[in-house]
Amino acid sequence: MKATGDDIKSKLIHVKGLVQGVGFRPFVYRIAYKCSLNGWVENRNDGVHIKVEGSGEKIDVFLTLLKITAPPASNIENIYLIDSETECFNKFEIKKSENTSDEVTEVSPDIAVCAECLEDMQTQPNRIDYPFINCTNCGPRFTIIKDLPYDREKTTMSPFVMCADCRKEYTDIIDRRFHAQPVACNVCGPQYELYYEKKAIKDFREILPLTASVIDNGKIVAIKGTGGFHLACDAANDEAVKRLRLLKHRENKPFAVMFASIEEIRRNAEVNETEEKILQSWRRPIVLLFQRKNTEIAPSVGIGLKTIGSFLPYMPVHYLLFEKLKTKAIVLTSGNISDEPIVIDNEEAKQKLTAISDALLVYNRDIYNRTDDSVITVVNGKESIIRRSRGFVPNPVHLDLNVEGIVAAGAELKNCFCIGKGNQAIMSQHIGDMKNIETYNFYIESLARFKKIFRVKPELFVGDLHPDYLSTKFVNKVAGKKMFVQHHHAHIASCMAEHKLDEKVIGVSFDGTGYGTDGNIWGGEFLICDLSEFQRYAHFKYIPAPGGDKVTDEPWRMAVSYLYNIYGMDFLNLKLSFLKSIPRAKLDLLLIALDKKINCPLTSSAGRLFDAVSALNNICCYAGFEAEGPMRLESIIAKNNQEKYPFDIGNCISFKKTFQGILDDINHKTDISIISAKFHNTIIFIILEVVLKIRNETGLNKVALSGGTFQNRYLLENTEKVLEENKFEIFTHSKVPANDGGIALGQLAVAAKRRSMNCL
Ligand code: ZN
Ligand code: ZN
Ligand code: FE
């Protein structure tokens, strides 16, 4: 449409935020077309640039539509507007991408298949049951992107040459697949292949029913997913689930379950409106829900815990499988060997996963960036993220700090690193527990890829104070400026960074382990801190952790340590039932170690305290996975119990009276659900008393809660409640995990703040 006359205006528009790989340019084209505007739109490294010409009124309408009707997975951060010269364009066009600057815009996370594509899968001749269907509103993104700008040649789709039909859609500006980089169909796109009983089956019409029947018959199938392989089996078949546990060497960590539909989730779990919204969002994370009683889910899925990690199909193949499957729920757990990163490569899958599965379902497109499923829980109506990976990464966290060029290495467990770009903190996908070479290699590889994709030139590296973490060793090894941040300060700084807080706050930092400035193991910490420094106001009383690292796998050691600390050897006369499961020789050795202080590092850890109470009540003497003791203790809490145990608060918080109270209750055969509630309430009241004391002394009223212990839903919900009743301003995590997966954000923020103050 030719625009003429004197009232023609021209604007240059620069849109920043998550605007690439989410169908933004075609969307801009369509609204420009609607508003009869001419000009162009172009993808550049620093965002989407638009030039429009037309009447001022129409430009206003265009700008409104730009803001309020943007694609679901996009996220506009800023729109910059300047007046421009009119050039009398006679059409609106989408210009080809150019590399114009080093200021990179955001990369989209992977998006679950959309409703329209699911419909197309039943109607479009070249896409009937085609499992790689996608459009500008859905499909793989981060997992296939090798570099920016986001174009097909820079993804793992590059070996696939578009057929004429696909190309037509790809180049048709009005089509939903216009410039959808992974566009594909049955003729030209990726294909699945099933390895079963020494045969390779290539016909998808054969693969689908066969895979479904293998699962329905109680077998295990390794299935290549969006960000890595899964192992799948019927979640209603206890034998199958037990066998999967055995083969995977995963004795008792709960498995996540994919359900056929939201109705199926409702039948099996309690799910509120917020949880439903998150389950059905395009990010499709695993959501931890309370499982209903007497469902058909096999007992060995949740192994006695009351929650069930539930999620909905997000790949076309998941939907297609459920059409054929008799079962409405499948266990879908990461395809890996014990603690290694999930397998992404077909050849590696053949080597490593065939031994632990009965069939292998692969496809011939590479996964470039490995991502696990993300995990979320809803606390007090708010989203709280436990594992941040597929669907979230690499969305940045926006800060009010200049973090350019800072690389934060993270901690050890559940590692994520974080790189700084302008005022954006870009958190990596979940890397895992950095305790083996495979995970370390994944870390190094991902860091190199993030640096390349986001054009970051590192100038400052930040690590944890713990000298033995592989992430710390990495920081020590690289050339350049470096800095180390205390673990619990980093936790609180992470929470502060999420909320753009840059002032003094009260920090409650509770977790399992973190290296303290005095060389002891911290973890029950009350800090007064800002982003640059902290003061340790109070902490849980130090207690020996006999056996050092062994205490995390053997919570009974902490129970004995607390008892020995309070009663000396007399505790042996108390006839505690948990001691029956401990071999006498082992116990004696431990007592000698405590007496002679051999390998007994001191700890103020909250996690270890929960471990001790859990073991003392014979709930968990040996842990099969991290924090099993605390999780089981939480899982049995009696509802509506307000009682608590006594405790002492000085500079150190002593639990002597608490333990005496618990032992009293054990002697009186009080139900463990009551003991658990009373213990949790005790911790909540300790938090309240200490922060009240700090407020009285300092006038500070903002409280940040962080650290893995705050993944305990009862603890977090009720701590928030009592602090709110006492008019505190409370800050908790939602964008990054409260556990060590969120540490890197805090490290980044502390480093940026110190750099800005010139106190490196
Ligand atoms: Zn779609
Ligand atoms: Zn095609
Ligand atoms: Fe921690």
Give an overview in words.
Helix content is 33%, strand content 21%. With 760 residues, it is an alpha/beta fold. Strands 6, 7, 8, 9, 10, 11, 12, 13, 14, 15, 16 and 17 form a 12-stranded mixed beta sheet that branches. Strands 29-30-26-25-24-31-32 form a 7-stranded mixed beta sheet, with helices on both faces. Helix 5 packs across helix 10, helix 16 (556-567) packs across helix 18 and helix 20 packs antiparallel against helix 21. The longest helix has 27 residues, at 672-698. The chain is globular and about 90 Å long. The model has no long low-confidence stretch (mean pLDDT 95). The structure holds zinc ion (2 copies) and fe (iii) ion (FE). The site of one zinc ion (ZN) has 7 residues, from helix 3.
Short synopsis of the structure:
This protein has 760 residues and is an alpha/beta fold.
